[in-house]
Amino acid sequence: MDALNQTRVTEFVFLGLSDNWVLGRLFFMAFSVTYMLTLLGNILIVASVVLTACLHTPMYFFLSNLSFIDICHSSVTVPKMLEGLLLERKTISFNNCIAQLFFLHLFACAEIFLLTVMAYDRYVAICTPLHYPSVMKMRVCVQLVFALWLGAAVHSLVQTFLTTDLPYCGPNIIDSYFCDVPSVIKLACTDTYLIGMLIVSNSGTISLTCFLALVASYTVILVSLRTQSAEGRRKALSTCSAHFMVVALFFGPCIFIYTRADTSFSIDKVVSVFYTVVTPLLNPFIYTLRNEEVKSAMKQLRQRQAFS
């Protein structure tokens, strides 16, 4: 609390993505369309799962939760980024910066845990199909989702407390378009090496450990497919390839950014744009374009709405 009382910085200034006026307007148009498609695509998936009885299964329950997280995750950073692309001076208050940081880690960590749970769901469904109904009951699925949100909240609180417990007395310029722990703690008026190592041990370890667990689970699934029929292999490969594509697109940038304590690269902004803006858009496209059940449910919803 003493460190908080020493805080003099009341706002932070973002350098943003570009100082070029024309390039900024182009980015604004491109990312505005991307954000709207992200919202529409993920809302459509959630609505399809909720309103279609045949999709009330563990896999689609997790998929609807993933879409909800993607809506929240992109909404934490994209609106502020779009505002900054139109303004010459891009600022955020200290309290809003900390709030953005908290929710960014909350939703990102929730997605990491959810993707791990989804891999476990596919492992049980493919490797032990006879036990699947008893293992993955809806009550168990709800408990898993509650646990992952609890774990994400604990992680985010730790990251937030580590950040706010430092004194900030200037400078206040963040070389990014949103507040994140690595970029904010660099502005603290004290040595942050230990805090940086704690960040790596927290965010980096979570990302890397979950990713390795996911790779291991999908490897076991692929090995087990040798004993299944051709049709079973085709369906399993279609589902798992979609899942693993999402995993690679999300975990790659997270591991790249959060496994480094004090080092930063010029490509960090591009990587950040990819996992905060692009990946939430790709998730609904990956799942809906490759999943006949989801596409059929969406078609039924459109027909039902047209009839009404």
UniProtKB/TrEMBL annotation:
PANTHER family according to UniProt: OLFACTORY RECEPTOR
InterPro entries associated with the record: GPCR_Rhodpsn, GPCR_Rhodpsn_7TM, Olfact_rcpt, Olfactory_Receptors
Keyword vocabulary terms for this entry: Cell membrane, G-protein coupled receptor, Membrane, Olfaction, Receptor, Sensory transduction, Transducer, Transmembrane, Transmembrane helix
Gene: OR4E2
Subcellular location, principal: membrane
Protein name in UniProt: Olfactory receptor
SUPFAM superfamilies: Family A G protein-coupled receptor-like
A GO molecular function held by the record: G protein-coupled receptor activity
Species this chain originates from: Chinchilla lanigera (Long-tailed chinchilla)
Residues in G-protein coupled receptors family 1 profile domain copies: 41-287
Record field: transmembrane: 26-53, 98-120, 140-158, 206-225, 237-258, 270-289
KW Zinc-finger (keyword) present: no
Membrane topology: Multi-pass membrane protein
CDD domains: 7tmA_OR4E-like
Compartments reported by the entry: Cell membrane; Membrane
